[in-house]
C-alpha cells in the first residue's frame, strides 16, 4: 500500500488505485497525510476543504467523507499495513507507518543525498527521490489556499533538489548532464533566477558559452517585461563568468545546485505571510545547494502541518516596479 501526494492524491494497493471519489474527499485525505500520526482538528480540515465561509453542515460533510475513507481503507485491508483512521476528540488521526507515504520517502532521500560526500552517491539518491514525483503535488484535491501552500512547499523542495542534482553532476565534471537536468526546469520556471544561473554555469563549463549568454539575455528580458526588475546578483555573476569565457569549473561548484530565488516562483525569493498568526516569514538568503534544500524542508514542515486558512501572497507575482 502506498499513499501519494507527489502527483495525484491517491492510494495505491496491490489490487489497484482506490476510488477516492470527489475532490473534497481527496482534500481531506491530503490534509491528514500532511500530518500523519498527528491529530488534525476539524477546523483545519474545514480550511482545507473550503476557502470561503463553509456550509452550515460542513462538520457533517467532513464526517461523511471520513466514513467513506474508512470503508475504502477497510476494503483494502489497510489494517494489515498498520493504517487506521481514528477519531480523537474533535480531530482525526491517520495512523500509519510514514514509510508508506511518498512525500516522506522523498524528504528522507533528499536529506540522505545532502549528506553524501561522493557526488555519484548524491546523484543516485537525488534521482531516486525525484523519480517519486508523478506530476504537480496534490493534484486532484480542492485548490484551497491552505493546500496550495503545502503543494508549493513540496514543489520548492523538488526544484531545490533538481538544482542540487545538477550541482552533484557538476562536481563529477559532467556539466553537459547538469545542463540537461536544468534546462527543462529553467524553461518551465523562467523567472526563477537560481535555475537560470545554474544552467548558465553548467553551459559555460560544458564549453557552450554562447548558449549561456543567450540564456542570460532571454531571462533578463523576461524579468524586465514580467516583473520590471533587473537580474539579481547570482544571475549577474553567472553572466560575468560566461563573459570571461574561462573554465572555472571549480569556482563555487556547489552553487550549481542553486539557492534562494529573488524573483522566481516558489517560497524562496519573496516575503511570505502566515495566515495563522499574521507573522511574516522572510525568504532565506542566497546559499549553496544543501542549504537551499534544507531551507525548503524547513518551509515544508512549517506550511504543511499548519494548513493555514489563507496563504496571502503564496502565488502572487512580485509587484511591477515603476520604471
Protein topology:
Layout: E1 2-4, E2 10-13, E3 16-17, H1 23-33, E4 40-41, H2 42-49, H3 58-75, E5 84-88, E6 91-95, H4 102-114, H5 119-130, H6 145-171, H7 175-188, H8 193-205, H9 209-227, H10 233-244, E7 272-273, E8 280-281, H11 289-306
Antiparallel strand pairs: 1-2, 2-3, 4-6, 5-6, 7-8
Helix pairs in contact: 1-2, 1-3, 4-5, 4-6, 4-11, 5-6, 6-7, 6-8, 6-11, 7-8, 8-9, 8-10, 9-10
User: What is the share of helical residues?
Assistant: 40-55%
Q: Helix count?
A: 11
One letter per element, helices H and strands E, the order comes to EEEHEHHEEHHHHHHHEEH
The CATH class of the largest domain is identified as Mainly Alpha
* Proportion of beta-strand residues: 5-15%
What is the mean predicted local confidence, pLDDT?
81
Low-confidence stretches: 247-289, 305-323
Give a description of the structure.
By secondary structure, the protein is mainly alpha-helical. It has two domains: 2-100, Arc Repressor Mutant, subunit A (Orthogonal Bundle); 161-306, Serine Threonine Protein Phosphatase 5, Tetratricopeptide repeat (Alpha Horseshoe), CATH 1.25.40. The protein has helices spanning 23-33, 42-49, 58-75, 102-114, 119-130, 145-171, 175-188, 193-205, 209-227, 233-244, 289-306; strands at residues 2-4, 10-13, 16-17, 40-41, 84-88, 91-95, 272-273, 280-281. Strands 1-2-3 form a three-stranded antiparallel beta sheet, with no helix packed on it. A three-stranded antiparallel beta sheet has the order 4-6-5. Helix 6 (145-171) packs antiparallel against helix 11 (289-306). The longest helix is centred in the middle third of the chain and has 27 residues, at 145-171. It is elongated, with a radius of gyration of 21 Å. It starts with a strand and ends in a 17-residue tail after the last helix. Mean pLDDT is 81; it is low at 247-289 and 305-323.
